[in-house]
Structure to design on (1110 residues):
């Protein structure tokens, strides 16, 4: 295999200094990076192994009602943390709907934020891809693109961000904590991932050396625990990326929506926070009618990037479904198939009784 | 080879014979403890690693490669290209019948499909070979890829499948269609699918002079030895293949392929052992696949539902340079009675690797289309799909009039339907919803698969201690040959399975034929049965001619072998153990042998098939289009069942494959480049556990005294047939939508509202 320097820094400062050199990558669990290195999509000169840095694998409950999650926390550990899952059920559900149990046991919070697109043309080094090789073009644009973006794309790139975890994070306005060459800074998750513009397809706003140390959920994120769902439509029941997904969270005052948090997944190069839809819902009586209006608002700017107009319809419907399920209330226990649109009882032998419509 | 593990004895009294018991796998312990050695686990002293460089274009030529850069990489020992590839003794552009296709072994600089080998890099480490291959950076002269109906080149094939007939006509289909009061016309498209055996194609080749030992997963040991001998210009006995375990094969490991030949060639050239294991992505090209089909079916019926004409046409894709056409239309020959049947095939050449047999080749894709068409025909006649199938039940083979050797399909229909609750099914579509508002649909399909028989040989040695050594070069792909074949041998020898040492998976053993066509148990089993019979006959001769034996003089009456003893047939009180007979005769052993085959008159005089009926329930979210198979019940009749546990497992595996065919599997090809854009197991979807409902496979008893002397039919592939159509028909029943293209996708069934 190609040779690279392998550096295991003793602390975050050393890591940042090491990674600021061009051609460097951070290695945490490697569930995405190592695959990409094997197929030649990424050929780093320096691999900075941060997996053993201490203190980054924990949850901290802060006095102002917010919570901080370390970047090296494993996806499974976070999802199965009882207090976390009770406070942010849609995040736990999203985490458990992703990948496989083995991958969730390894993958980290920070790595999940920065996972690369699954666009086949990004992964195929013989194809043109402006993400992988700026200026080379986008072979997905007129290629096999039935699962590509319907929001926020440009001729430069029609790829989607594949994360489940990031969808409820975007909805809840997570804050990303970064140590960089110039010191520490916070950015909202909405500013982390970039959308392609007319000339470029940057993936994120991070600078060389930038180290995500963790993320915070703001105090008000805890107020949606009673009505929070993540729903994910897949082409098989598990171990598949979303066709479309949605996180919906409601803060209810009786039947009236006091506030809501909404985001759609697998429709754009970033987890898509639906601010317009949230605005539609505020102060309204909950129900299908207003949810439909909200979904229409969320997708007002959607347009197919190829053979994928059906995804706009599906994104609308998954958002309505997530809102309906959230309105019904957060399940008392995590569904056996988290985020599945199918009701629980279909996981085992179904009831025999059917009625003729 | 033998299994070095302790096999716990299993009580057998309940069944009274060794065959028929649900023994667990004899190799199970080795496999679950990681001690089963697969081909790529072998590391002989001094072994080098080979990595293939493959083309990324579909058609054209390799203009240049940076061979110097690859050679200069530390650890790289040799770079094999068309310029320096040593000669082969067989022209790779010529076939070696029956299974030897034209292969790509660096014979020139042309590129005929994506992932074709264009160089082989051999190095001291896997990493060095991998990087060496990456450094080659090939430059191409590229011609446009021909990958679809628009650009493919059509032709009339001279054959389909392996030795299959491209066109069979019986009666006048056009006349039947023109007078039929009810007719349907259906088109169904099936995608390219890849075997994706868990274990990639691999080989560890070690030469000693002009003898070579190959560790490789292989479904056809003797045929492969002969082919390798031809390629390397050595006597066939100089080739030894060791293939104790296969991590799945599904047809792709019965056919010689270019990469393995190149690795063997490299080992000879460098005079060191060489290992090659394909990457997952490299399995999408040089090691065959199920070819794409575009099928058309026309059926004409009387008002009472009786078929009067059946026309099945398949446009089957193959490569630009070799013919393997999915014999899909032939699926319409054995099943439904019609006075006129026409099945025919047309070929279309695409710039892909050559397709090949993939679990139920032709039967799977043909059944998928046929069973959908039958469902539509039933609907057109206003009939229940099961009633329609019974109306057109074939009492003799439709196109030939031959009697079936056995056919318990009616019982399969009855038992499957009863278990499923089929009688409560509303006839028209879109009638059922469950308590959550999900659309519910019920569908069915008929399963059928032929019973080929291959020549096979075996040796059974009864030893002085009363135990036996049984030998045949069979292939266990995970189906359980180590176990089922040992059971057959034990029964023939009148021993318990744990008294039988079974050697298999090695080409120096007697030729067990091919593990393919669902015929391995019958073929190798018959040889074992006859070898065991020969050993018992020899032992019997010793006893009945020995005045000191209690069996003396029983020659005309005969003896029976049971529990390690021979009994006088008319007097059970007179018996003697095998050990006693051998000891008194002063013999260390008797060795029985057999070269078996089925009498050709059996197949020429009878139609030989396994049958089944599959019933499926699906639930579909009407808004989101997500489909789940919620129930799947199959009832199958396949002659004598040697091991019901393994057979049930085979049926389950087939039915799950049917779910995969119906709802998941498809190689997605970029139309511009011919590259497969989902050549990995993350994106080439097969069902996960959660996609599989509780399965039921009903083993319908069936005695067949004709199909072969041991009465065994095949079970390996039939489970896919019927299932695909059953699920597609259930999707129609739920939604009212006839999907014309597999796999069925979310956007095909989501409501248009």
């Amino acid at each position: 295999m190609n040779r690279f320097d392998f550096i295991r820094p003793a602390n975050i400062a050393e890591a940042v200094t090491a990674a600021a050199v061009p051609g460097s990558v951070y290695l945490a669990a490697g569930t995405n990076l190592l695959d990409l290195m094997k197929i030649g999509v990424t050929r780093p000169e320096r691999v900075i192994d941060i997996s053993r840095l201490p203190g980054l694998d924990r949850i901290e409950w802060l006095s102002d009602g917010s919570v901080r999650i370390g970047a090296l926390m494993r996806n499974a550990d976070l999802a199965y943390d009882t207090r976390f899952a009770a406070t942010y059920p849609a995040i736990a559900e999203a985490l458990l709907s992703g990948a496989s149990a083995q991958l969730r046991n390894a993958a980290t919070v920070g790595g999940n934020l920065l996972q690369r697109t699954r666009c086949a043309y990004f992964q195929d080094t013989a194809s043109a891809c402006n993400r992988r090789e700026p200026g080379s073009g986008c072979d997905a644009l007129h290629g096999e693109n039935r699962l590509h973006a319907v929001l926020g794309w440009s001729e430069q790139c029609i790829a989607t961000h594949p994360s489940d975890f990031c969808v409820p994070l975007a909805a809840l306005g997570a804050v990303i904590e970064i140590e960089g060459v110039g010191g520490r800074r916070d950015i909202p998750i909405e500013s982390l991932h970039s959308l392609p513009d007319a000339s470029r397809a940057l993936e994120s706003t991070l600078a060389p050396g930038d180290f995500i140390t963790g993320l915070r959920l703001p105090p008000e994120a805890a107020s949606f625990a009673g009505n929070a769902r993540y729903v994910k439509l897949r082409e098989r029941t598990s171990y598949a990326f979303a066709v479309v997904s949605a996180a919906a969270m409601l803060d209810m005052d009786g039947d009236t929506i006091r506030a809501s948090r909404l985001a759609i997944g697998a429709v754009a190069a970033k987890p898509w926070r639906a601010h317009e839809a949230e605005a539609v819902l505020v102060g309204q009586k909950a129900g299908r009618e207003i949810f439909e209006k909200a979904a229409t608002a969320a997708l007002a700017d959607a347009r197919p990037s190829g053979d994928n107009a059906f995804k706009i319809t599906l994104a609308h419907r998954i958002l309505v479904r997530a809102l309906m399920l959230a309105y019904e209330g957060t399940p008392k226990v995590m569904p056996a198939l988290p985020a599945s649109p199918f009701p629980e009882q279909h996981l085992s032998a179904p009831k025999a009784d059917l009625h003729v419509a | 080879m033998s299994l070095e593990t302790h096999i716990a004895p299993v009580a057998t009294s309940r069944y009274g014979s060794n065959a028929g018991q649900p023994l667990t796998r004899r190799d199970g312990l080795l496999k679950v403890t990681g001690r089963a050695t697969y081909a790529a686990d072998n590391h002989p002293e001094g072994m080098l690693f080979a990595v293939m460089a493959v083309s990324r274009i579909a058609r054209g030529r390799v203009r240049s490669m940076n061979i110097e850069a690859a050679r200069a990489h530390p650890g790289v020992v040799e770079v094999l290209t068309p310029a320096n590839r040593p000669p082969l003794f067989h022209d790779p552009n010529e076939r070696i019948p029956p299974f030897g296709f034209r292969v790509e072994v660096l014979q020139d600089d042309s590129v005929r499909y994506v992932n074709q080998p264009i160089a082989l890099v051999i190095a001291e480490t896997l990493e060095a070979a991998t990087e060496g291959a990456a450094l080659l950076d090939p430059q191409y002269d590229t011609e446009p890829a021909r990958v679809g109906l628009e650009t493919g080149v059509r032709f009339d094939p001279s054959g389909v499948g392996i030795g299959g007939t491209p066109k069979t006509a019986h009666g006048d289909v056009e006349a039947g269609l023109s007078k039929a009061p009810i007719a349907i016309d259906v088109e169904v498209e099936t995608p390219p699918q890849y075997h994706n055996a868990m274990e990639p194609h691999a080989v560890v080749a070690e030469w000693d002079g002009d003898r070579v030992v190959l560790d490789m997963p292989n479904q056809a040991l003797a045929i492969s030895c002969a082919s390798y001998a031809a390629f390397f210009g050595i006597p066939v006995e100089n080739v030894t293949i060791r293939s104790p375990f296969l991590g799945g094969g599904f047809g792709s490991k019965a056919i010689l392929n270019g990469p393995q030949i190149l690795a063997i060639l490299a080992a000879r050239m460098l005079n060191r052992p060489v290992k090659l294991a394909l990457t997952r992505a490299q399995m999408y090209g040089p090691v065959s696949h199920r070819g794409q089909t575009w099928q058309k079916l026309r059926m004409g019926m009387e008002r009472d539902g009786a078929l009067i004409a059946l026309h099945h046409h398949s446009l089957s894709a193959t490569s630009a340079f070799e013919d393997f056409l999915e014999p899909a239309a032939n699926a319409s020959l054995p099943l439904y009675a019609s006075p006129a049947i026409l099945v025919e095939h047309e070929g279309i050449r695409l710039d892909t690797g050559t397709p090949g047999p993939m679990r139920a080749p032709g039967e799977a894709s043909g059944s998928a289309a046929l069973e959908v068409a039958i469902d539509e025909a039933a609907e057109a006649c206003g009939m229940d799909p099961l009633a329609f199938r019974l109306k057109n039940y074939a009492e003799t083979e439709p196109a030939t009039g031959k009697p079936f050797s056995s056919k318990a399909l009616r019982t399969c229909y009855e038992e499957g339907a009863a278990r499923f609750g089929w009688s409560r099914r509303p006839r028209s579509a879109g009638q059922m919803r469950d308590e959550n508002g999900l659309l519910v649909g019920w569908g069915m399909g008929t399963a059928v698969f032929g019973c080929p028989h291959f020549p096979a040989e075996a040796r059974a040695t009864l030893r002085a201690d009363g135990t036996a050594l049984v030998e045949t070069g069979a292939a266990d792909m995970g189906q359980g040959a180590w176990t089922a074949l040992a059971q057959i041998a034990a029964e023939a020898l009148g021993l318990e399975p744990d008294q039988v040492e079974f050697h298999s998976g090695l080409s120096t053993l007697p030729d067990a034929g091919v593990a393919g066509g669902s015929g391995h148990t019958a073929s190798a089993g018959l040889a074992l049965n006859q070898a065991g019979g020969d050993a018992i006959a020899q032992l019997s001769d010793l006893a009945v001619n020995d005045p000191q034996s209690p069996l003396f003089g029983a020659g005309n009456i005969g003896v029976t072998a049971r529990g390690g003893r021979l009994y006088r047939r008319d007097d059970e009180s007179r018996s003697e153990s095998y050990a006693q007979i051998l000891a008194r005769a002063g013999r260390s052993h008797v060795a029985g042998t057999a070269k078996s085959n089925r009498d050709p008159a059996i197949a020429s005089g009878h139609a030989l098939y396994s049958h089944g009926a599959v019933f499926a329930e699906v639930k579909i979210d009407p808004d989101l289009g997500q489909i789940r198979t919620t129930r799947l019940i199959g009832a199958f009749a396949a002659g004598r069942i040697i091991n019901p546990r393994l057979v049930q497992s085979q049926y389950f595996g087939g039915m799950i494959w049917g779910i995969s065919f119906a709802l998941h599997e498809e190689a997605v090809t970029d139309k511009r480049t011919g590259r497969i854009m989902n050549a990995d197991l993350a994106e080439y979807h097969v069902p996960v556990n959660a996609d599989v409902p509780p399965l039921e496979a009903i083993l319908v008893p069936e005695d067949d005294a004709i199909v072969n002397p041991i009465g065994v039919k095949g079970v390996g592939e039939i489970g896919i047939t019927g299932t695909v159509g059953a699920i597609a028909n259930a999707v129609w029943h739920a939604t009212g939508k006839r999907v014309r293209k597999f796999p069925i996708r979310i956007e095909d069934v989501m409501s248009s509202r």
The domain at 40-144+196-283 of chain B is CATH 3.30.365.10 (Aldehyde Oxidoreductase; domain 4).
